[in-house]
TrEMBL record:
Subunit structure: Homodimer.
EC numbers, comma separated: 5.4.99.12
Protein role: Formation of pseudouridine at positions 38, 39 and 40 in the anticodon stem and loop of transfer RNAs.
UniProt-annotated catalytic positions: 51 (nucleophile)
Signal peptide: none
Positions contributing to substrate binding: 109
Assigned protein family: Belongs to the tRNA pseudouridine synthase TruA family.
InterPro entries recorded: PsdUridine_synth_cat_dom_sf (IPR020103), PsdUridine_synth_TruA (IPR001406), PsdUridine_synth_TruA_a/b_dom (IPR020097), PsdUridine_synth_TruA_C (IPR020095), TruA/RsuA/RluB/E/F_N (IPR020094)
Protein name, UniProt field: tRNA pseudouridine synthase A
CDD domains attached to this UniProt entry: PseudoU_synth_EcTruA (cd02570)
Catalytic activity entry: uridine(38/39/40) in tRNA = pseudouridine(38/39/40) in tRNA
Organism the protein comes from: Chryseobacterium herbae
Amino acid sequence: MRYFIEFSYNGKNYFGYQIQPDAISVQEELEKALSTILREEIKTTGAGRTDTGVHAKKIFAHFDTEKEVDALNLPYKMNSFLPPDISIKRIFKVKDDFHARFDATYRTYEYYISLAKNPFTQESAWQHWKRQLDIHKMNEACKILFEYEDFTSFAKLKTDNKTNICKMYKAEWEQDGTELKFTVSANRFLRNMVRAIVGTMVEIGSGKIKPEDLRKIIEDKHRNAAGTSAPGHGLFLVDVGYEF
């Protein structure tokens, strides 16, 4: 039987979601809790792989078990077992072939930038207060993203991606006081893609390059053409869509 987990986590203390040798991960903590409570070895498959320090407000994973699980009480048991920075919202049964990663129809991320020194967002936003950003130019650049589907220039080098094609659904910057929020949604994302886009957008907003320069960056199809990746702690996975 296959079950889905909806959960969230603060990524500060983790080297991303996926299990890695000699590094603590969210997946490791999930599997440890499930295996202990269900008294069998449990492996999970996540909706995606977040980088070191990246957070998730809403993410899913699935696991298989031979047992009938008490899906109403299991979240409470797991939350009692898990560290404070991982929270289980719900667990529910799905079809045996329903897949947390491959059956996702879209993913949505938010990236936060603080335009003023803020002691309360040091761990949840990029502190970019020494140089102001032009949000209008950054939104001009966002429109250009929809002209393309090959985002090789924003992909981490030497990965096992079979394709770098992504369908963009939304890309927009919003300002609320001294806080900037970038919302981006697509059918899939490449490793490091959102952080690389944000880093490039900041170069546009600070006047280092022009919005129209983004076309050449994308058409070069090489990571060195784009800007430096934005820090991981400002990035949040906020939604993953499915047709249950």
